[in-house]
Amino acid sequence: MRRDFCDGIGIARLLNATLVMPKFEAAAYWNESSGFADVFDVDYFIQQMDGFIKVVKELPPEVALKEPFRVDCSKRKGQFDYIESVLPSLLKYQFISITPAMSQRRDRYPLHAKAALCQACYGALRLTRSLEQKAAELLEAIPKPFLSLHLRFEPDMVAYSQCEYQGLSPASKDAIEAARGDRKPWTGELARIWRKRGKCPLTPNETAFIFQALSIPTNTNIYLAAGDGLMEIEGLKSIYTNVVTKSELLSGEDFLNMHGNTKAALDYYVSINSDFYVATFFGNMDKMVAAMRAYKGLHNTVFLSRRAYAELTSKGLDGKELKQALWLAHKEDFAMGRGSALPDCFCDFKS
Fold it and tell me: In degrees rounded to 5, what are phi and psi of residue 55?
């Protein structure tokens, strides 16, 4: 959501359009009902974007009764796609709803659009006062120094990957099967090819093994930045015993009433302020966290390689031999502490 919103700012500036504060899509599996203003400080955002683009909270009355013309750019490419393809619709209908292009090269935006996007992502978006206070309380409660681990092994994540796993508990198998729907797992040679391409999420046990290969001490304080329903977590906790979660550190009715977006915001806040950040996936949150940490000068950021783990285990490596090979696969990123998310970054507030 944060990524799409930042993209929306850049697009609005490209088109010289007014941006209407967005509404979050509901997510039934997150029990989600929170809106933009439940997570972000709207007034601060509008104030900080003054001079970059015009932002309004609501549509003018004469427009509010109309349905927006919907423009889906999710599969479009090209440097000037928005201007060539979207601007005519905006001029014709005056009010459009847009789905940003996933593959758009933001580094090719004109300077004025880059400036608006960077200001939105790194200068204007901040949590509401109450949510930031709760996030600061959570950060204070975590034993220091600590590593924030974004571990993705929820039933829907595994089901979406179409991967099969051996040795899972009956409860985990049932949860994955319930989440699969029409997405059946790959089998045979296709399954092996899919896994070797790095498409299968790391299990908590595999994550712990890679941690050991990287010589991360087993008494490291680890904050688990993860949603509800994480499976097989004992595979990590049985080796790394100082693992804490937000549900263990926070209490009270206000936390119990939080939904997916606000809980994710807590994880984001903790992760951008952690001593170290490690992710088992390369998703939207991981890209946003890595970029913000780079902006803050915190470069102890590493993405574990699913592909390296799959390729090495497919060769029959195990034990010390596998650990040595995993260390070599991660050595450059681990030594640099920069992961692989930063080459596309173009926002620079220090120049």
Answer: -125, 135
Prediction pTM value: 0.89
The total of other beta-carbon atoms located within 10 Å of residue 283's CB is 14
CA–CA separation, 39 vs 260, rounded Å?
A: 11
Characterize 218-227 residue by residue with b for buried, 16 or more Cβ atoms within 10 angstroms of its Cβ, and e for exposed: eebbbbbbbb
Contact by Cβ (8 Å): 10, 109: yes
How confident is the model over 13-40, as a mean pLDDT?
A: 75
Query: What is the greatest pairwise CA distance in the chain?
Result: 69
The H or E element that residue 99 is part of is strand 96-99
The CA distance from 191 to 275, in Å, is 37
Asked if 309 and 283 count as a contact pair (C-beta separation under 8 A), the reply is no
Percent of the chain scoring above 90 in pLDDT: 61
Integer CA distances (angstroms), 287 to 7, 63, 216, 320, in order: 14, 36, 23, 31
| Residues 75, 66: Cα–Cα separation, whole Å | 26
Report d(CA 280, CA 303) in Å as an integer. Answer: 6
